[in-house]
Design brief:
Chain lengths: 464, 381
């Protein structure tokens, strides 16, 4: 079998470029998409902003200091999803073996293509052309015989911005098999997939700065310092060995939502109300995907940055908001929040295998048709986790169809037309929308930084 | 105790009483036995698992009065294996002898004093005509839930007064079947009983009912059989020609099913019952499991049926129909839909819908005595 040919396609400054596309007057200006509150982060920025040293994942406060003239935009997640769908449709025209990494990024395995006479260059060129013609946006393409090489190559192909100016990138970079190590070894180790800030620091302590340095370490040393699996993994990557296949997109394995709060929260009732909003948004998303979930998880990050998650699995899949909420609230109630909560998240997983649709059940109202009812939320004590299953089943059967009606009303009249009483704030209903305020709270809303779960959302960030 | 009885009628008695015997009762061996008692020329067989009790009696040639308890499935199997003719059964000490011609069995008897004390079946308080009861049971019972632990209430079939008769209702939360039996009410206002579906399935299997269901009274020219019904506070008994089926009632208040029925339907499909049924059964062949839905595209002049399974393929069929309403695609569990359509009396079926996620109704062309409500399957387009 010959070498694989893998493309990594990555949009250039995707979110920011979509904003400029929609508002041509911004062309040529530094544009930053992200949260502009105290804890907001930069989600994307144009190359004009990068000239000032701004980059994604940087805190918005710092970005403003570096580039006070930048246009700050909150981001329109649904708009990016729209463009992303067009982009992924182009990919699927090329090959069915498309693995989406983020809205603006994907691996394509084109080994089976008949047009590989030039090692994939013509295919890459065609993709760039179509993206330019149909989306009016720019992308960079890396070509290699592994995901690692393709991803590093696309990075190499990108435009560069510094104080002097913006240099157009190559657009397409192909790493040939016999030049892989020559290309790889001078790169800093953090370019490797699996090297985050902590690992990077440890490696630096060992005198390892480049990928090449890694190969010169005796195998045992690295494994002792980083653990066997990470150690082996990194040394294999450093030798250019990466056999990870391109896995065609599956459906998301979990659906969820999390928020970083503008200030740490201590009040259990406040947290419970925020959890209700998140459950509401994610449950709607779950139902739109036609799924029911068996596992409900919450994630809590405390003011000291320590973090924990709790999850509970049910025997029956559920999709009704109150049923999902009962489980999530019981999980939250089991967490000691005395350290102050900085981030709260909820996610639903363990999807029932229902490729064909979901049998709806009658809505019995509040009547118990199963076992004895268990006391619900509100001022009553929350059901213990042991009892929450029964409660969830009861709520699922009594609310199933009501939830459908809510989804329908929202689809017709908008997200804030109907919701749980607990979502009612001084400014009316405030259900979360997917992707809303994704990169941190804005100046006025104390809501929080939220990021949608699921495979399609968020930025993968890390190296190849 | 000693008697003689034709093999076929003895077998029917033993099998009928035996159906109340669980066979693997953990509550004691006594519940695995059938109690036999001879008084004069009458044999009475009783089987019970305490929830369900079946008394059945038949005419025999009584030789010695007495009583015994036999292992129910074994005795029935022995009798079934014998050739035609009169079987002699004699219980003495701890043995029960079963003989016919040159076949001889001597099986260990069970201590008859271990058999639970059961109340005598109460005299019937009301009567239901066997033919219409048989058809009602056939229409309704299968919609009941079989989930004993999760949905105990819904494992019961509701029998409640409705205008001048009674109404039978069963649901498993996904579909609901409802049938009125006019002119047979003896339940008081607001009085309702919840009969376990299992007891009604046994009732359905009695020959009186299977015969009544096969040949409606009007055709057979015979006098209609009547099924007696009596009920007390925790039990109900159905009685017919020598058989009493007594059952514990499901405890609890049945949920308000009336609120499930939409007040009106904007969309109405009118279609030939047989053509719809045949088409549904054909497209269902492509359903890989009981969760593969059938999609119905409702539009003027016809309904298109479609079943698609990723691993198998797809089937489509168009059935001519009258349709009034908005074009609509709605999906159902094909078995639930077929159950409902089969149960509709007459040649024409009406399918009424609100939208793709609200309950739909299957019924006959006239409002009639039968109503079948079912929830759609939500499919992702």
């Amino acid at each position: 079998m010959g070498d694989r040919v893998i493309l990594h396609v990555d949009m250039d400054a995707f979110f920011a470029s979509v904003e400029v596309l929609d508002r041509p007057e911004l062309k040529g200006r530094p544009v930053i998409v992200g949260g502009d509150g105290d804890r907001g982060v930069v989600a994307a920025c144009t190359y004009e902003a990068r000239r000032f040293g701004v980059h994604s994942a940087m805190s918005s406060t710092l970005a403003k200091r570096l580039c006070p003239d930048a246009v700050f935009l909150p981001g329109r997640f649904s708009r990016y999803v729209e463009e992303s769908q067009k982009l992924h449709a182009i990919f699927r025209d090329v090959t069915p073996l498309v693995e989406g990494i983020a809205l603006d990024e994907a691996f394509l395995d084109v080994s089976g293509s008949r047009e590989l006479g030039d090692g994939g260059l013509a295919l890459a060129q065609r993709i760039r052309q179509r993206v330019a013609d149909e989306l009016h946006l720019a992308c960079s393409v890396g070509i290699g015989r592994s995901k690692l090489m393709a991803k590093l190559a696309s990075k190499e192909a990108k435009p560069r911005a510094d104080r002097v100016g913006i240099a157009a990138g190559a657009g397409i970079v192909r790493v040939e098999a016999d030049l892989e190590l020559e290309f790889l070894h001078p790169l800093p180790v953090r370019a490797l997939w699996g090297v985050g800030p902590v690992t990077n620091k440890r490696l630096e302590e060992m005198g390892v700065r480049t990928v090449g340095d890694l190969t010169r370490l005796p195998a045992g040393t690295l494994e002792r310092r980083l653990g066997t699996s990470l150690g082996r993994h990194l040394q294999a990557l450093a030798r250019g060995e990466d056999s990870r296949p391109v896995v065609p997109d599956q459906e998301a394995k979990s659906i969820g939502h999390e928020e970083t709060f503008a200030r740490d929260l201590w009040d259990p009732e406040d947290l419970a109300a925020r959890l209700t909003r998140m459950v509401d948004a994610s449950a709607s998303h779950l139902r739109r995907a036609g799924r029911g979930a068996r596992t409900v998880s919450i994630k809590v990050k405390f003011s000291d940055f320590s973090q924990l998650s709790r999850s509970h699995s049910l025997t029956e899949p559920i999709d009704a908001t109150p049923a999902l909420g009962a489980v999530a609230q019981a999980l939250l109630a089991s967490v000691d929040i005395n350290r102050g909560v900085r981030l709260l998240g909820v996610s639903f997983s363990g999807f029932a295998d229902e490729p064909q649709g979901r049998q709806l059940a009658f809505s019995w109202g509040e009547e118990p048709v199963g076992g004895e009812p268990v006391r619900g939320a509100g001022s009553e004590p929350l059901p213990s986790l042991a009892m929450v299953e029964q409660e969830a089943v009861r709520l699922q059967s009594s609310w199933g169809a009501v939830t459908d009606a809510v989804d329908e009303i929202r689809a017709r009249y908008g997200g804030s037309s109907v919701g749980a009483a607990a979502l009612m704030g001084p400014r009316g209903l405030q259900p979360r929308r997917r992707g809303e305020a994704q990169w941190g709270p804005s100046g006025t809303d104390d809501g929080g930084q939220s990021s949608p779960g699921g495979k399609s959302g968020g930025d993968d960030g890390g190296g190849a | 105790m000693k008697f003689r009885c034709e093999r076929d009628s003895l077998l029917e008695v033993l099998q009928t009483a035996g159906r109340a015997v669980s066979g693997r009762s953990t509550m004691g061996r006594a519940l695995n036995g059938v109690r036999l008692e001879v008084t004069g020329n009458r044999l009475l067989a009783v089987g019970t698992d305490l929830d369900l009790t079946i008394h059945i009696s038949t005419e025999v040639t009584g030789l010695v009065d007495g009583v015994c308890m036999a292992p129910a499935p074994l005795l029935a199997n022995i009798v079934k294996s014998l050739g035609p003719g009169a079987v002699t059964i004699e219980a003495e000490d701890e043995k029960i002898d079963v003989s016919l011609a040159r076949s001889q069995f001597a099986i260990n008897a069970m201590p008859v004093e271990d058999f639970p004390d059961l109340p005598e079946p109460e005299p019937a308080a009301t009567f239901l005509e066997a033919g219409s009861l048989a058809s009602a049971l056939k229409q309704v019972v299968r919609a009941a839930s079989t989930d004993e632990s999760g949905r105990p209430l819904l494992t019961g079939v509701l029998i409640a007064p409705e205008s001048d008769g009674v109404r039978l209702v069963a649901t498993d939360s996904y579909r609901l079947a409802l049938r009125d039996l006019p002119g047979s009410n003896s339940l008081g206002e607001g009085e309702q009983i919840l009969v376990p579906a299992r007891a009604l399935m046994e009732l359905q299997r009695l020959s009186v009912l299977t015969n009544a269901a096969k040949a409606p009274v009007a055709d057979s020219g015979q006098e209609a059989s009547q099924i007696g019904l009596s009920f007390g506070d925790r039990r109900a008994t159905f009685s017919v020609s020598g058989v009493h089926i007594s059952t514990r009632l499901v405890d609890g208040k049945y949920p308000d099913y009336r609120q499930l029925i939409p007040p009106s339907y904007p969309n109405q499909l009118e279609v030939g019952k047989d053509s719809l049924l045949e088409a549904l059964r054909r497209v269902r062949l492509l359903a890989t499991d009981d969760r593969t839905p059938v999609r119905l595209s409702l539009h003027a002049g016809a309904v298109d049926l479609e079943v698609a399974s990723q691993d198998v393929g797809e089937a489509k069929e168009t059935v001519d129909a009258d349709y009034r309403g908005d074009d609509l695609v709605i999906a159902f569990n094909p078995t639930y839909l077929i159950d409902g359509v089969e149960a509709v009396p007459g040649d024409v079926v009406i399918l009424e819908t609100v939208d793709a996620s609200k309950p739909a109704t299957v019924r006959a062309a006239d409002e009639g005595q039968f109503h079948y409500l079912l929830m759609p399957v939500r499919v992702v387009n």
